[in-house]
Specification:
The chain has 259 residues and is of the alpha+beta class. It folds into three domains: 98 residues, Orthogonal Bundle (Cytochrome Bc1 Complex, Chain D, domain 2); 70 residues, Cytochrome c-like domain (Cytochrome Bc1 Complex, Chain D, domain 2, Orthogonal Bundle), CATH 1.10.760.10; 46 residues, Roll (SH3 type barrels), CATH 2.30.30. 37% of the residues lie in helices and 14% in strands. The longest helix has 31 residues.
């Protein structure tokens, strides 16, 4: 082996090892801090697909860094302000490497106009709100298309109990006269419990005035598992179009975790 070849190997092999090490670090950081919401391979779950779906806040290194650093107001995306610049760069490198092997899916199959009709026919606005219209009993849907993966949207319709969002856990209280009242738990302590019933009224009960309190494991949302395949796809297509602006004045939760 000539001297020139040996010199080239000495330059390129350490560089390759360094790049691989940075990729591995980014993958480890992502999986320990982000995978719970975005999935182990960043294809989505509770949080949006970061690989093949369009990113609401841009897919450049600068825009991704901004989201990691300051979070997204009005959403469950927290601020990872304690990450070093190197760590942020490693996470971005990992995400960009995944995106290179997957095309951005700008269009979701289905007829969103028909999906909007189904949304109205099923009276989804009786629990959900879109752009200020509807109920606050269930989760806000104004930007659900930019906040959740397509697979998560589909599962939430046909299997809502598979993942009940935080803050929407159901509870049933039984009064001494036998009357049962079911709603969403708002607050609870040793002596009292507060819930929001389906009519959006806030109800407060003293526990010593109740026979029992049951914390539900099933979602308050019924399963729409009898929709035809076409109707389901059209409803998902409609929800995927919902990418309204978030409330920029809302507070951003600071991330905890192990890095």
């Amino acid at each position: 082996m000539g001297k020139t070849v040996r010199k080239l190997l000495l330059v390129f092999i350490p560089a390759a090892l360094c790049a691989q090490s940075s990729f591995d670090q980014g993958r480890a950081l992502f999986r320990s801090n982000c995978a719970f919401c975005h999935g182990m391979t960043a294809t989505g779950g509770r949080g949006p697909n970061l690989v093949s779906a369009p990113l609401s806040h841009g897919d450049t290194d600068v825009s991704i860094k901004r989201v990691i650093r300051i979070g997204v107001p009005g959403t469950t995306m927290p601020a990872f302000s304690e990450f070093t610049d190197e760590e942020v760069g490693q996470v971005i490198q990992y995400l960009q490497s995944l995106s290179k092997s997957s095309l951005r899916n700008e269009n979701v199959p289905g007829n969103p106009q028909h999906g909007q009709q189904i949304y109205g026919e099923k009276d989804c606005s009786g629990c959900h709100r879109i752009g200020g219209q509807g109920s606050i009993f269930g989760p806000e849907l104004t930007r659900i298309g930019g906040a959740r993966s397509i697979e998560y949207l589909r599962d939430s319709i046909i299997k809502p109990s598979a993942d009940v969002p935080e803050g929407y856990e159901g509870v049933t209280v039984v009064m001494k006269n036998g009357k049962r009242i079911r709603g969403l738990r708002i607050n609870e302590d040793t002596f009292s419990i507060q819930l929001r019933d389906p009519s959006q009224q806030i109800r407060m009960f003293q526990k010593d005035e109740l026979i029992g309190v049951t914390h539900e494991t099933e979602s308050m949302m019924p399963a729409y598992d009898r929709l035809s395949a076409t109707d389901l796809q059209d409803l998902v297509a409609y929800l995927a179009t919902l990418r309204g602006a978030v409330d920029s004045s809302a507070a951003v939760k600071k991330a905890g975790g192990i890095k």
